[in-house]
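User: Hey, quick favor. My workstation is busy. Could you predict this chain's structure for me?
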Amino acid sequence: MNHLQISTDPTLLGADLPESLTTSPSVSTFLPEEDASTCLLLPGTPSPPLDFTHPLTPSMGNADNCENVAGDDLAAETSSSGSSGIEMVGGCTSGAGNLFNNHNNEYQHLRKKSDGKMQENGMANGALNISLTKDMPSFVHWDWPLIRKCTFFVFLAGIVAMVAIVVTMIARLPKSCNPSVPWYKGSVFYEVFPASFQDTNDDGLGDIRGLISRAEYFKTLGIGAVRLNSIFPSAHYPDHFQDVTSLTAVDEVLGKVEDLQKFAAVLHERNISLILDLPIYPFVNHLNPPTLDVDHLPNRTDDVPTSEFLRLARSVKAERENVITSVLMFWLAKGGVDGFYIKGLEHFHDDPLLLENIKEWKYTLGGDRVLMVSQDFIDKVPEAIVRDVLNQVDLVDVMLEVSNGTEAIANTVRDAINGQLLKGAEHPWVHWSVGGVNERRLASGMNSNVSLAATLMQLMLPGTSSIFYGDEIALEEVHDPNGEHEETQHLHNLPAMSWSGGQNQFTGRGTLPWLPKSASASFHHLDIVRDLIALRKRSPSIYLNAVVKDEQILPNAEVKSSKNDILVIQRWYPRRNSFASITNFNSKNVSLDLTVMFYSGDVLASLSTKNERVYFKEFTVNAQETVVVRLHK
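Assistant: No problem, here it is.
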């Protein structure tokens, strides 16, 4: 290898080269310590021809000329005339231009093989050709463009899936974060006299199948439970429905026990519970000793299945059967009943076995079923045991006597708010009623608006509200102007239910109802009642009966005024809207200045206006009307 990096090995060149070619005399003409290839040509030195070809570079000349001289002997000439380069003259046949022609053909052959492999394996990098062999890893042969595309789409699909999950979670978040309570607390019950609600067999009497056919009506009304007044057999049902002959059967006029089970199932599908009135007096004239040893039975709060509890309860041997406990077990075994209103307990207020019996009844029902009693009973219970009795009861039915005036209503509400019913966390809730089987219809003898005013007023009270069937449409009593039905006068407050024109009526066209029809009904009241029930369900300020703060129970309702037949009640709850209901039971419109209490608000429920901003400087309330206002803070 000489200074020009040209091999001088004769075997490689394939020719006998003279010494003058392998040792260049021009080396001495180079500048000291300089590479001749980077030294500028001296003036007067002729430039290399344009067809100069480096000896080690494969010939780029005409292939035809190279073929003609492939077998000739190679010759080389050098010039020592002062030139600093090597002058190569001619094409393939001149000088050193064909020195490596034979080897160049071999190089061309190798490159063609490499090109073939490159094309076969798809590996190229500019002019660099890489030959793939069997010794390379298998992943080199993978389809990487396809892999990159698949990876991209999988990544993109993952992003879309995560976004969809987040959106779904946000959509499923509760729209409100209101305090939760048991199903019967703060709910609205609907009281029904079954014989007067809906007839399906055209005998003029309502039946349980008629109740099933009206299940959607209960749902659209927004109630939480249906309470059946009387379903038990009597000698002359329904004329003398109070004189029951059995508490474990259904009067044949209404249907069968299986019909009641089906009705309960239909209600449960719509998230509505079923309550039964249990008139124990005079069917039971004294209380029997308890039959269950509560201390030796599992705690009913430990989610003991009803079937297991009944099996354990029956295994207890008692000297004498407890009638009421047996009745409760009977209906629990049938399934579907969510609570009982035990009527007539006021006749046993001084019975020495009273407290033990109530404990056994509540234990039998368990924590998820309701035990309800009347306020008349609680008022008669001896003071020594009244607290223990209240601890076993879930609801106390309080009747609001609207006909007694606003002062009487205000006193009843204040007694419930500030009295013993709301003093303890485990004490029962108030169940408000403005009508019932033993009460006259509010709309009878007065303006029909009184029924709506009283219904809206009691829906704004703390506790659980109750609507007697027909009060939502101001159903009046039986219309008997000629006195043709005086023998049933005690039942004239139980007329057949009226339905709007687009719905089927109480009974078939060819059949008369068991009682004459009601005088009238105001169907336009129905939407107002529905709206207020919906407002009550979503507003803790209304459906809760107190504010629990720092283990203290504070009232969240106040009677602001009850003078001159005007009843003003305010409801509130921390960090929630406050409401006020203003009821005018007077027969004339009134204009009030309530700025001492409130400033302004929005009307949410009223017979005359709705969704209207009002100011309490000159607040007008029509005669026999209740206005519900959301107060501005």
